[in-house]
Amino acid sequence: MEELIIIGSGCAGWTAAIYAARANLRPLVITGTEPGGLLTTTTLVENFPGFPQGIQGPELMVAMEEQAKRFGARVLSMATVTHTRLSDGFKQVVLEDRVLKAKAVILAVGARPKHLDVPGETELETRGVSYCATCDGALPAFRNQAMVVVGGGDSACEEALYLTRFASEVYLIHRRDRLRASPIMANRVLSDPKIRPVWNTVVTEVVGCDEGKLTGLSLRDLHAGKESSLSCAALFVAIGHQPSTECFQGQIDLDEHGYIRVHDGSRTSQPGVFAAGDCVDFTYRQAVTAAGMGCMAALDAERYLSALPTPSDA
């Protein structure tokens, strides 16, 4: 029987592990098949506090893992959770080869950015293709050059407006003839002289050079069927995220998009189950906010466990 199981190994999961381990809970961290989460697909991280020269995403995640282990966290690397049973009483976490039981569980499973699924996108990820303007838009390689955002909602508009601080111009490509964003956000975008909307258009290919860096896009006009090309230094895909919460459906409250609902900090609808990071947060989605939520979840879990009756109390 485990005191605490943490599912997920991004910033939220490792921060929760650090705090829980320092509280002598000896947490067990299940990393999943992508240890480190989305930051392992990021090159230079310049906005995480404490690193004035920036730090490579994978390096940051390894450092967090080592810090958690130093205080006594245990790790099941590359283990996959197939399903869970999170009802009252002891929680069950089912892996491919075993069933684990715990008094409390922290869900830090993150969210996956939706992809365009076009040729070149995967190959050029971190080499010009990004899913977070706040993370990568200020990189020196992109400054004062043309950048592209794909999407038409509030997130895409926010990304485009943010990028105007660094880009020579920002192309906002949308498959419809009007934005889905809120009117105030749409007005800001359409009135910004640096943003050029490209309507009724989709990306059909992400193009790179021999050095493996993005150089442009192939486009198709959905009305005229006309093919064209667009030169750019960076592509930011902002068509939404999918939280990795499928195996928790029907066990804890999720919103209509699959994000975990929390209350009073990090508590879910099920006692003893806490959640942190991008599986909860659809607004900020930053490493530092995920880390803060991981801290909250660990503290909430510690208080929950402290309040459980001991065998002598029963």
From TrEMBL:
GO molecular function: thioredoxin-disulfide reductase (NADPH) activity
Cofactor(s) needed for function: FAD
GO BP terms, alphabetized: removal of superoxide radicals
Superkingdom of the source species: Bacteria
Class of the enzyme per the UniProt entry, highest EC level: oxidoreductase
Gene Ontology CC terms, in alphabetical order: cytoplasm
Cofactor descriptive note: Binds 1 FAD per subunit.
Assigned EC number: 1.8.1.9
Keyword terms of this UniProt record: Disulfide bond, FAD, Flavoprotein, NADP, Oxidoreductase, Redox-active center
Record-annotated FAD/NAD(P)-binding domain positions: 4-294
Catalytic activity: [thioredoxin]-dithiol + NADP(+) = [thioredoxin]-disulfide + NADPH + H(+)
Pfam annotation, one family: Pyr_redox_2
Subunit structure: Homodimer.
Annotated PANTHER family: THIOREDOXIN REDUCTASE 1-RELATED-RELATED
Family, per entry: Belongs to the class-II pyridine nucleotide-disulfide oxidoreductase family.
Entry protein name: Thioredoxin reductase
Species per Swiss-Prot/TrEMBL record: Methylacidimicrobium tartarophylax
